[in-house]
Design brief:
The protein is of the alpha/beta class. The protein has helices at residues 5-8, 25-38, 179-189, 196-209, 220-231, and strands at 14-18, 45-49, 67-68, 75-80, 88-96, 99-106, 118-123, 129-133, 153-157, 169-171. Strands 3-2-1-8-9-10 form a 6-stranded parallel sheet.
Length: 275
Amino acid sequence: MQNSLKSVISTAKSILILLPENPSFDEVASATALYQAMTTDKDKEVNEYCPSPMIVEYNRLIGVNKIKSELGNKNLTLSFSGYNPQGIEKVSWDIDDGQFKLTIVPKVNVAPPNQDQVIVGYEGIAADYVILIGGKGDESFPVLKKEELASVALAHVGINPLTLTGKTIASLASQASSISELTANLIKASGYEITNDIATNLLMGIEETTNHFANSGVTADTFALISELMRDGGKRLNQGQVQAEDFPTGAIPTMPSDVPTSWTEPKIFKGTSVS
C-alpha cells in the first residue's frame, strides 16, 4: 500500500464514497464504516452512493440508510409534474424575513402549480474526490463515465488492485482477510475515532466475509484487530444468539412423535422398572 487515506484526501473538500454495482456485504460494511469515520471531519462534505438498491440482509449494518440511490447532490431542482410550462409567466426570487423565497408567477387566467405537482430533487455532482470501494473493473463503476466525474481524483480501497480504462487511481489496496479489515486499518492510521457503530460494522464485515474466521486469509493480525474492535465496543455477528439452524441435522434431540406434548416431567408406569 503506497498511499495512506489521510494523505490522498488531505486537500479534498467534497468526497464521494462510491460502491460498485451489486456490492457484497463486506463492501457495504466498509463503506458505511468509512463514511461514519470521515463525517467527523467538519471541513469535508462526505456522501456515499450505490447504483444498486440495498438488499434486506444489509439492513443490519448501522447507517446503511445513509447510502444514497441518487448521485446528484450539487444543485437543488424544482419541477412540476403534469403542469404545462407555457402557463408560467415568470420566475423570481427574493429574501423575505431572512428566508429565501422563490415565486412562480402564472400567466393571466392560468392557475399556478398546486403543491402536489411540486417535485424537489438534486442534480450535478459536487465531489472533488471519489473513493471506490472494492469492485473488479470498469463494469463495476459505470457511473464514472458521467461527464461530471471525468476529471475527478480517484482512490481505491480493496484487497485486490483495481484498473479502470483511462483512469489514474491512488491505490489504497492491500492484502487482508476482507475489505473491512483493510478499512479498519486505514481508519486507525488516519487518526479517526472508531466508535461502537463503526467497530460493529467492521466486525460484521470481517466475520461474514471470512465465514466466521475460518478462511485461509485470516491471520494473527486479523485476530488482533478483531480484539481491538471488540474493545472499541463492536458487537459480533449474531453474538449471544443461538439458532437451531446453527447446528447440523440430528445434533439437537427431538421428542418422539408418539409422546404426548402434555408430558412435562418423567413418568413411571406400573409394570416397568427403573434401573
